[in-house]
Amino acid sequence: ESLVRAGADELERAAEAALRPRRLEEFVGQRVVRDQLSLVLQAALNRGRAPDHVLLSGPPGLGKTTLAMIIAAELGASLRVTSGPAIQHAGDLAAVLSSLEEGEVLFIDEIHRLARPAEELLYVAMEDFRVDVVVGKGAGASAIPLSLPPFTVVGATTRAGLLPAPLRDRFGFTGHLDFYADDELERVLMRSAGLLDVPLEGRAAAEIASRSRGTPRIANRLLRRVRDWAEVRGDGRLTLSAARAALEVYEVDERGLDRLDRSVLQALCLRFGGGPVGLTTLAVAVGEEPETVETVAEPFLVREGLVGRTPRGRVAMPAAWDHLGLERPAPADT
Ligand code: ADP
């Protein structure tokens, strides 16, 4: 089963890659970040120097990887891609860093998940363009400083607050990506439909956008599912009714909640009486990793006013009971 899943993930990634905007001006929405980045890049180009390191933060699927690729493209530089979890040892990172060429962009996804020794090596490299290569072992070991050509790190993280201050401080520019408005998602969808050459009607685009949790990745994924439905069960046109029927099959409700979101809400309301309940306990109850619940489901549920975060844990907001069609509990005596 995991092989089939891996294959499906591959396909999804390829489908996603085909829809990525290549230049800053094609990147929809996020006007503030786009504006700021365009200045940083133009200034660097004018000076003929590598720009400051860039940190991008925000929930998954909002365009961090896409922006990293765009940064390299706008600079006419090549891009090297790695991620926090992919770097097991500081030595792995040293190898990547020491092979960088002048002006290259190094994208580090999930940078908050770098192990401590790698993190320390990275901030020295970012600050002084130097890595200390350790030769030998034990008492006889010595560090040989190796200087690096100027390069730019683009780090991505789901929460900037997770980064230790010394690392965070090495970034000259931090862009916070926020959930997209529905009309921006509609533009993402119309653009994607054009690239995929599928006939997407305006009202269908609006319907898909409103159920995409403010997230372009989800919008594009739902678009592909609606296309599947239209081709197999419809007449090939992506109409409002095709969109509604497809989204029902895929269990995406009118508010855009999917199965994981609903199971989090259900666990909160039914198993824990509305909370407060700790993140780990909640994650175990829905059979997910705490990080998945925290970064994938929670930001949207909080923004929608369905879940609250308190010092004592997560709580169901009154709207959560309404959304699940449950009776709100009587207010507790306090
Ligand atoms: P992240 O790295 O933040 O998880 P990605 O950069 O991988 O997100 O974006 C996910 C998908 O959403 C990509 O396929 C990309 O095509 C699309 N996407 C993201 N942001 C935008 C945008 N502003 N305009 C158009 N498409 C976007």
TrEMBL record:
Class of the enzyme per the UniProt entry, highest EC level: hydrolase
Entry EC no(s): 3.6.4.-
GO molecular function (one): ATP hydrolysis activity
Annotated spans, Head domain (RuvB-H): 254-334
Pfam families reported for this sequence: AAA_lid_4, RuvB_N, WHD_RuvB
Region Large ATPase domain (RuvB-L): start-end pairs: 1-180
Binding site for ATP: 19-20, 61, 64-66, 127-129, 170, 180, 217
Domain of life (superkingdom): Bacteria
Residues where Mg(2+) binds: 65
InterPro entries xref list: AAA+_ATPase, AAA_lid_4, DNA_helicase_Holl-junc_RuvB, P-loop_NTPase, RuvB-like_N, RuvB_wg_C, WH-like_DNA-bd_sf, WH_DNA-bd_sf
Protein keywords: ATP-binding, Cytoplasm, DNA damage, DNA recombination, DNA repair, DNA-binding, Helicase, Hydrolase, Nucleotide-binding
UniProt keyword DNA-binding present: yes
Localization annotation: Cytoplasm
Job description of the protein: The RuvA-RuvB-RuvC complex processes Holliday junction (HJ) DNA during genetic recombination and DNA repair, while the RuvA-RuvB complex plays an important role in the rescue of blocked DNA replication forks via replication fork reversal (RFR). RuvA specifically binds to HJ cruciform DNA, conferring on it an open structure. The RuvB hexamer acts as an ATP-dependent pump, pulling dsDNA into and through the RuvAB complex. RuvB forms 2 homohexamers on either side of HJ DNA bound by 1 or 2 RuvA tetramers; 4 subunits per hexamer contact DNA at a time.
NCBIfam families linked to this entry: PRK00080.1, ruvB
Entries under PANTHER family matching the protein: HOLLIDAY JUNCTION BRANCH MIGRATION COMPLEX SUBUNIT RUVB, PTHR42848
Protein name (record): Holliday junction branch migration complex subunit RuvB
Gene: ruvB
